[in-house]
Design a protein that fits this description.
This protein has three helices and ten strands; from the N terminus they run αββββββαββαββ. The chain is α+β, with helices and mostly antiparallel strands.
Length: 279
């Protein structure tokens, strides 16, 4: 009986070993399932640092990175030589691709001129700290332009009106100039992007009046129609109009003197009336 149980145990162990070996053999001999092929990438040229508009691109401004093939933007460059020497029409951030539409022709050079769209003009006006909205007028911000003028010499005709709306600022710089006493002083110069007719209006306003810039929300493109304001409207809207001063009373005029001349016995007598003396 003991021998029979031993053989049964040995037979079971042998069968288990054969089954495990067979499973291992099938797993090893089966073809491996290939992993999904990695998405191909392309080496493209990007900015190595933030680059402002008007910059002439150099090799130090660039680097190449691997970009997923399915996400490569149109107009990319693969060689730095394709980009070096071109001016930037728009601002480019670090790691942003240098696409063709962001670059000016090499012959165009760099600076502010290449950032001016076709049909537009850049006009610079001198402003003080108040007019320049305390330093918040920066490149890319939007402003309205107001002008205050006094036609003739009548101060009651002083008028302020918005002449330009939603104008983009291209640049805001400070420079030195001498005041009337010869002392150096800071002057802020703001350059605005305008159409040719607006360039005429802005130049005339800066010459014949005093301009003021009103900073506006960059996302707010709505234009508002206004009729302007005269100085007399400020007085009228601030409360009841002042009463006119009473007219001065006329002063009584003295009655003119009347003189009667008479003669008695060779004597001449003069009688005066209207003098208040009762004679």
């Amino acid at each position: 009986m003991k021998i029979s149980r031993y053989w049964w145990m040995l037979l079971g162990a042998t069968a288990s070993g054969l089954l495990a070996g067979y499973v291992a053999l099938v797993y090893v001999s089966s073809e491996p399932v290939p992993l999904e092929a990695a998405e191909p990438s392309q080496s493209i040229v990007v900015a190595a640092r933030d680059l402002p508009a008007g910059t002439i691109v150099t090799r130090e401004d660039l680097e190449t990175v691997a970009w997923p093939g399915a996400a490569i933007p149109e107009g990319f460059s693969t060689q730095m030589g394709e980009v070096v020497g071109h001016g930037l029409i728009v601002e480019v951030r670090k790691s942003e691709p240098l696409l063709g539409w962001k670059l000016a022709d090499k012959e165009a050079g760099g600076g502010l001129s290449i950032t001016i769209p076709e049909g537009m003009r850049a006009v610079s006006v001198e402003v003080d700290e108040v007019v320049g909205v305390a330093g918040f007028v920066l490149p890319g911000t939007r402003v309205d332009v107001l002008v205050t003028v006094m036609p003739g010499t009548d101060r009651t005709q002083i008028t302020t009106r918005i002449i330009l709306q939603n104008v983009r600022a291209l640049a805001a710089d400070q420079r030195y100039q001498q005041d009337i006493e010869g002392e150096p002083q800071y002057v802020t110069v703001v350059t605005l992007l305008v159409t040719p007719p607006d360039a005429e209006a802005l130049t005339l306003a800066a010459t014949e009046g005093r301009i003021q810039l009103a900073l506006r929300n960059t996302l707010d493109a709505e234009e508002v129609q206004t009729g302007g304001r005269r100085i007399t409207s400020l007085i009228a809207s601030g409360g009841p109009a002042p009463r006119p001063a009473p007219a001065p009373r006329p002063t009584a005029q003295p009655e003119p003197e009347r003189v009667i001349e008479s003669y008695q016995g060779g004597s001449r007598t003069l009688l005066k009336f209207g003098t208040g003396d009762g004679r």
